């Protein structure tokens, strides 16, 4: 199971392959069924993540539909080998974020333990699941801490020490295992095709598919399908992306964190490919959409919530043990008390209250020379 396949450490894929071909012949029904099951699990995991992050709101259907219909996921649905990498990664990604947010809101250890198992499950199928760990760290720093960058790091480290131990231990253990199993197949890291890879992978493949492309496919090496968008379509796609980003930047507040997450994840994709297959296959490998399919797994950044939804995303973050499914009776009573207190203060501070206050305190306050609040004039 630990034998690398084309430079990838994917014991989960070996397990599925042996189960499908245990009789000596490939069971095509079982192979197709495995793709359908993993894709369904990914969709259900995405629904759970969206409901956990934003609640049961109709608008969560927008990122869900974008995820399910994105052409970035196409290679993982038509190529069985790619499916054994990409589809379990999506399940792991959605489950990890859901469990991670539950842990950040409640600080209950069972959630961070289950989150670690979800990440480990993704690593069982594809090395790219290691990118889930920095995504989780970014969510904690960006949305569950405040202050300067150093203060955010200190806050997260002080509030969530169990996550540091489990996440750091998991990443270190997998790095040791991966290097031990793939040392003889490692490729030299070179910066020669870096700019060309950024141009093909991000400029053409990502840019066109982010707006619904690529519209043209190249299948010169089946079953691999490469994006082949016309240059005019790529130009129009980036114009549209620029307009959308500019609109969100001008009309909505605090969107920088979401775009930082997208850019950081895409650059990590580039670095992984640059250190693995790009030196061997050239910059053209960036046109293979399964390497940018991780963007389709970021529904939160593709559909930015409104301000009240963002508060819901962070709710109960500072209250250890607070329920996440809904407010308890004591919490509702506390909120009702706070609302009544605010209403009382608003009434006392209003102009009408100040005008009527002297008459409520008795006639002695209206005696001449005592500063009556009533305006002068005939009775």
Provide a descriptive summary of the structure in words:
- The chain has 379 residues and is mainly alpha-helical.
- The chain has three domains: 1-186, no CATH class; 188-291, no CATH class; 325-354.
- 63% of the residues lie in helices and 2% in strands.
- The chain has helices at residues 11-20, 28-54, 61-69, 75-78, 80-106, 109-123, 132-143, 149-159, 161-182, 194-209, 231-251, 256-274, 278-281, 299-302, 307-314, 329-349, 351-360, and strands spanning 217-221, 224-227.
- Strands 1-2 form a two-stranded antiparallel sheet.
- A hairpin with a 2-residue loop joins strand 1 and strand 2 (224-227).
- Helix 2 (28-54) packs parallel to helix 5 (80-106), helix 5 runs antiparallel to helix 6 (109-123) and helix 10 (194-209) packs across helix 11 (231-251).
- The protein is globular, with a radius of gyration of 28 Å.
- Mean pLDDT is 75; it is low at 299-310, 315-340 and 350-379.
């Amino acid at each position: 199971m630990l034998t690398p396949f084309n430079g990838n450490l994917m014991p989960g894929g070996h397990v599925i392959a042996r189960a499908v071909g245990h009789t000596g012949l490939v069971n095509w029904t079982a192979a197709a069924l495995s793709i359908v099951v993993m894709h369904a699990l990914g969709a259900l995991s995405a629904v759970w993540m969206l409901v956990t992050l934003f609640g049961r709101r109709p608008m969560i259907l927008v990122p869900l539909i974008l995820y399910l219909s994105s052409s970035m996921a196409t290679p993982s649905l038509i190529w069985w080998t790619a499916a054994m990498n990409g589809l379990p990664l999506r399940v792991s990604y959605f489950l990890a974020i859901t469990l991670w947010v539950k842990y950040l809101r409640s600080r209950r250890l069972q959630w961070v333990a289950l989150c670690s198992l979800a990440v480990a499950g993704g690593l069982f199928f594809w090395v790219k699941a290691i990118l889930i760990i920095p995504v989780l760290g970014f969510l904690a720093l960006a949305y569950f801490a405040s202050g300067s960058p150093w203060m955010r790091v200190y806050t997260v480290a002080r509030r969530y020490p169990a996550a540091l131990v489990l996440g750091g231990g998991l990443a270190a253990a997998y790095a040791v295992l991966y290097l031990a199993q793939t040392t003889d197949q490692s490729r030299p890291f070179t910066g020669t095709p870096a700019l060309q890879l950024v141009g093909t992978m991000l400029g053409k493949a990502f840019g066109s598919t982010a707006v619904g492309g690529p519209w043209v496919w190249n299948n010169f090496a089946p079953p691999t399908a490469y994006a082949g968008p016309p240059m005019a379509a790529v130009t129009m796609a980036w114009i549209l992306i620029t307009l959308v980003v500019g609109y969100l930047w001008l009309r909505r507040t605090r969107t920088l964190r979401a775009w930082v997450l997208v850019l950081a994840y895409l650059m990590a994709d580039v670095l992984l490919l640059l250190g693995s297959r790009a030196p061997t296959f050239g910059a053209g490998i960036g046109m293979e959409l399964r390497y940018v399919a991780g963007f389709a797994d970021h529904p939160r950044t593709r559909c930015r919530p409104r301000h009240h939804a963002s508060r819901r995303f962070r709710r109960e973050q500072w209250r250890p043990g607070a329920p996440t499914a809904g407010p308890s009776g004591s919490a509702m009573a506390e909120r009702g008390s706070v609302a009544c207190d605010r209403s009382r203060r608003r009434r006392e501070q209003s102009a009408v209250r100040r005008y009527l206050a002297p008459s409520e305190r008795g006639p002695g306050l209206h005696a001449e020379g005592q500063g009556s609040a009533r305006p002068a004039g005939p009775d």
